[in-house]
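Quick entry between incubations.
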Amino acid sequence: MNWNRFRQPDLILKLIGDLTEYKKQVKFMEVCGSHTMAIGHWGLRKLLPENIILISGPGCPVCVTPATIIDSLIKLKSVTITTFGDLMRVPGSHQNLEQARAQGCDIRIVFSPMDALKISQDRETIFIGLGFETTIPGIAFSIVNAAKNNNQNFSVLSLGKLIPPALDALLDDKDLKVDGLILPGHVSTIIGMMPYEFIPYKFGIGGVITGFEPLDIVLGVKTLIENLDHPRIMNEYSRVVRPEGNQIALDLISEVFEITHAQWRGIGEIPDSGLKIKSKYADFDAFRKYDIKTSDLEENPLCLCGNVLKGKILPPECPLFAKTCTPDYPIGPCMVSSEGSCAAYYKYER
Amino acid sequence: MTRQLIKEVFAGEFRISTLDDAVCIDGSLTVTTDAYVVNPIFFPGGDIGKLSITGTVNDLCMNGSRPAYILASFILEEGFAIDQLHSIVSSMQSTAEEAGVQIIAGDTKVVEKGRCDGLYITTAGIGFLPGGIHLDAGKIRSGDKIIVNGTLGDHAIAIINARQQLGLTPAPESDCAPLHEVIRILLQNTNLKFARDATRGGVATILNEICDDTGLGIIIDESSLPVKYSTRVLCDMLGLDPLYLANEGKLIAFIGEANDDLLSLLKTYKYSYEAAVIGQCTNEVKGVFLRTILGRLRPLLMLASDPLPRIC
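Done. Structure below.
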């Protein structure tokens, strides 16, 4: 296989070797689901010295989306539903989108909201607009385009969520003891470094923005350790992330969306952590157009996903993990998406 | 899921004990059947017609048989363009000639518009198994090497790019190809125990099935996996794993002893020039494991469902 310079085994193993000089126990949270997957994929959790513990955070947008949304969408029989792939197998109360499609609902996987816009040229189409700051600008762009062309067929179910307020809420929980954060690379590409600056001031811990290659992650851990005494926000992903973020993307977000409270499945309501479509673009707001309501699905009382999402336990500590709850028959939110912590542990770390 | 469906519904009712792509019915006559519903019908590197021949040839030759005859049935959607049909049939014929098989009979049905997605093809294949060849997963032993004949995931990536109009340039090409010659090279130069074409579910799924059937362990070496750089990058972007992606011109072979020049011999042939030993069978582990480039072993699970592209 053609490995790039961020996958050089010798360099990565040397850096890990250097880390053994650090003897105190530290616990870092990787916030992003793609980091959780990458850490599992490369086996980094076990390659790192035992005193350096990586725990997973809330960073999978599919996982934290209330599942009742699936029920509401399946009821809309006459509309084409378009979605990113990972939502297809999230269980609703009775069936998931894949099963609904098999029974005749027009549900299509798209790779971009612009594909959904294309589909809407000849049929009424909803795009399920979930995601963090990474995907939200693309969704905003599709809405701006639909408005420009007065495309009344197109609407977006805005389920966008914001990472910094979620981190604020998580770190506010005194039970969560972490010494630093591995901050999401893709999200940071959009928002830059500024929105995290409250973390060292308010909570006295640092954070490092890293990429998703094994060298990125190990370097991120090293940077956090070296700066434990001077907690601040650091950028080890400067080949992609600019300190100020992406202004064009940020402008698009604020053109279309306004900040609102949001329900995070497994965590609860977090103030100012969601995005709703501004009234200026109300015609493209599927919540208003189809009068869709979300409520919390009653979770299995044995499911400990809430604690997994909050970084309080590791997935194998849940009694359902890999027994009754598996990627094919997921019970809790962290197992439903391939980027969920439980799904990542199931695949890589059992 | 499909495997479960086949086991629970078809195998039980038809009282089939061994589930295989092809079956040898009297010690020398191998038969197979397959259905082709690929969308899009034309894709870089092939079309549904070429695929129907290579798929059938590959199912026949995996037990060592020499593919000889193919029968083909067509289900056409009303209004299907005749020039496209010509093009598909012509690519079937040229692929059949390359594979040394004759298309000898068939059937055609036309269904109303909307009742099928353009064109479906089903085939039946007939091949002859030379005396003395008996490939069987039961012969695989700890220490046997595992070979693939080239880069993994190419067909799936070509289809994803074409279907989703991702606009990759140059467009990735499907690997669809007849593998009878690769099998012949392996038979002549190794103690070939068993071979499977790594179609749907990819290499990881086949390896898991073989572990289930034989009780052996398998360790695959990540650094030796042949994967195109473009495939790896696209897989990283979409959250897919080349080990689980479909191939249409790749086989996995389990071999005991082999001639020293096996790999260099394979590398001289157009459908195996990127062949590689990717791992071996072992009693040290149960199930399929991947040794990552960082040296750790991690499980390669059987995925019951098709992989889905992820959000970000």
